[in-house]
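A.,

Following up on our hallway conversation. Structure tokens first:
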């Protein structure tokens, strides 16, 4: 943990911390029947995720703490959204989506696995690497797909009265997002292997 909090007072770290705070707010709004506000909070979360990286690189505000807070905020957000959609789809009235609800558990499993891997690396004195291009792409697509679902899905969509997305369209989008998530997971594997190998040599 030495040096983790050096130069930690940055705007990107503040945005990552705010995203972590947004997770329970979004969940409560969704569960309490305020899907429009839940969509708004999730949109702000995705927007802040986009800008914190841009700001960090543009103004040289990259920090070790940020490399932990940013992916932690992503994982908490993705796990929470996936669990909520699993519960609501499982108890919904659309047969196709009810039978398809288990797919959201794949998001949960993948994020929990990466969270455990990060904790193990930190316990070994290693710092998890920054997000790879596939990780960033997977996160971007995840936010887009989940916003679309919460906005237009049957039963739960905030704007389903304006237009309800067909179940097949939702299924295709979720599958694309799942595939990208696991591609991102596998893209981290070589870097983790190299860190463990180098530590063993030392």
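Then the amino acids I'd put at each of the 202 positions:
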């Amino acid at each position: 943990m030495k040096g983790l909090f050096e130069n930690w007072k940055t705007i990107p770290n503040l945005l990552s911390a705010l995203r972590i705070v947004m997770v329970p707010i979004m969940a409560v709004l969704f569960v309490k029947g305020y899907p429009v506000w839940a969509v708004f909070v999730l949109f702000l979360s995705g927007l802040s995720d986009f800008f914190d990286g841009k700001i960090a690189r543009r103004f040289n505000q990259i920090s070790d703490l940020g490399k932990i807070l940013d992916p932690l905020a992503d994982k908490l957000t993705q796990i929470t959204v996936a669990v909520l959609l699993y519960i609501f789809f499982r108890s919904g009235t659309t047969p196709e989506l009810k039978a398809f609800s288990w797919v959201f558990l794949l998001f949960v499993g993948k994020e929990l696995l990466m969270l455990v891997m990060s904790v193990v690396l930190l316990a070994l004195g290693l710092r998890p690497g920054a997000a790879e291009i596939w990780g960033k792409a997977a996160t971007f697509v995840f936010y887009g797909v989940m916003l679309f679902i919460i906005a237009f899905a049957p039963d739960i969509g905030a704007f389903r009265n304006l237009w309800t997305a067909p179940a097949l369209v939702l299924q295709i989008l979720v599958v694309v997002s799942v595939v990208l998530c696991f591609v991102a997971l596998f893209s981290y594997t070589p870097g983790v292997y190299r860190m463990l190998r180098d530590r063993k040599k030392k």
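The domain at 11-201 is CATH 1.20.120.1760 (Four Helix Bundle (Hemerythrin (Met), subunit A)). Curious whether your intuition agrees with the design.

B.
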